[in-house]
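ARCHIVE CARD
CATEGORY: sequence design from structure
SOURCE FIELD: tokenized fold
FIELD CONTENT:
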């Protein structure tokens, strides 16, 4: 590596340092098991940035050899939690952290809603108040 250009050495050092921070557990965190047997995995968004720069400049009237080199490099990482993956009771659910994922919640609830509607139709209970109450999970006799 003695013959490598100094900017290449700077970039390689910075990239190796960033690489040492990257791990599978950075994005999909270590599993946590709850007492009831469910497993919860944190899911994160990871962003990396990297920059390097350098300059060679002449000193006086140097005729031979290489010019003096000045340079620098840097990198950074951002880690943001985005969701939790919950595995248990025969299901896998993704629970977003932001709380604005209403469409995800609707998709998660769709099978339950369909099952309840099918049960109500099969049992001959199709009046609107009971159907609406059944969907909400508050079935009551009228």
């Amino acid at each position: 590596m003695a013959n490598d250009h100094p900017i290449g050495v700077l970039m390689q050092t910075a990239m190796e340092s960033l690489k040492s921070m990257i791990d599978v557990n950075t994005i999909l965190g270590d599993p946590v098991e709850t007492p009831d047997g469910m497993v919860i995995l944190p899911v994160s968004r990871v962003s990396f940035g990297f920059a390097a720069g350098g300059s060679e400049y002449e000193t006086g009237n140097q005729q031979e050899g290489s010019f003096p080199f000045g340079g620098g490099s840097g990198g950074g990482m951002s880690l943001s939690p985005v969701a939790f993956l919950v595995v248990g009771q025969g299901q896998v659910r993704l629970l977003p952290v932001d709380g604005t994922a209403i469409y995800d919640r609707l998709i998660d609830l769709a099978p339950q809603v369909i099952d309840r509607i099918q049960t109500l139709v099969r049992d001959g209970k199709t009046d609107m108040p009971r159907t609406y109450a059944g969907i909400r999970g508050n079935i009551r006799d009228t």
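CARD ANNOTATION: Residues 85 and 94 are 5 Å apart (CA to CA). The beta strands are 32-33, 39-56, 69-88, 91-96.
SHELF: design records, drawer C
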